[in-house]
Amino acid sequence: MAADRIEVIAPNLKRRLSGVTATIARLIPVQAGKIGIVATGPGLPATVPHISLIRAATLPNTHRRVWHARRNTEMLLGLIYRHILRRDLALVFTSASQRVHTGYTRWLISHMDAVISTSRRTAEYMDRQSHVILHGIDTDRFSPPADRAALRQRLGLPDGILIGCFGRIRHQKGTDVFVDAIMRLAQDNPDVVGIVMGRATDKHKGYLQDLKSKVQSAGMAANVLFPPEVTVDQVPEWYQTLDLFVAPQRWEGFGLTPIEAMSCGVPTVATRVGAFEELVMDGETGALIPPGDVGAMADALAGYVDDPDHRASASAAARALMLKDFRLEREADQIIAVYRELLSSA
Description:
Layout: E1 8-11, H1 19-31, E2 37-40, E3 50-51, H2 53-58, E4 65-69, H3 72-83, E5 89-95, H4 103-110, E6 114-117, H5 120-123, E7 131-132, H6 148-155, E8 161-166, H7 175-188, E9 192-197, H8 205-217, E10 224-225, H9 235-240, E11 244-247, H10 257-263, E12 268-271, H11 276-279, E13 286-289, H12 294-305, H13 308-325, H14 328-344
Parallel strand pairs: 1-2, 1-4, 2-3, 4-5, 5-6, 6-7, 8-9, 8-11, 9-10, 11-12, 12-13
Helix pairs in contact: 1-14, 7-12
């Protein structure tokens, strides 16, 4: 992209895939049709407009640009570019954190020109005013299936009530609570099948193996499946196979999986952590439960397993809510409005 067209730079200073990297990868292609935006840094797909870090540091000061950081390192680099390299930058920081920030982070945030919080709860941890902009979802990619039975057959999945838990596999994510709840539920409902899919890093492979051993020892290998992790482009169709989804986290910053599931018309049971209380409408699009409570999770799921009409109404409500309030375009436009405000004040 020509230098005179670049209005916003979004750094990604982490090579390994993370939630922040995924956010940049899905947002920038949408925003690029509306504002001159590029990313910089490693680990991004070719579909994202991109310039090198060196070029970002040497762009001519013909006009002000926005530097949109999402990590401490990126805030610091933006300050270096502005104050040491004398780049004409307005600095924005987006936070998904729901904890008291360290003194260093608070210092960095205090030097930003604007701050975005990904939920109202996140905003409560800020020492300054912030724009609350919830994440959105690509409702075209994540949509209800045309033929769920055929999709299950193609993926080698059984009939019955399929309940999914997707994402990182570790104690913090509550995967063990999900497994225990499915095993409890399946004792009275043998058609219930839980699907645990995601990545267990080296540190958490023992945790995953313990879960598999527990399921095997209980004689429930047919009721709790552990398929291998799939690529990002395959994830929507796995949501589309489900009757119900569970987000069992003990702690979370934002967490995209509930809106990915609900966009596919899948009612979602989620714990009352992170932004989940702002995403799931309790009793309408799913249910909210305390974290770490196997009994509450099993009971909430049973209410949907035993009542197909309840599942159907929650499915329709979930999809309608995503189309109304959680489209990716809405998130992109609200962030662009922050950019425009900063650029117009140059």
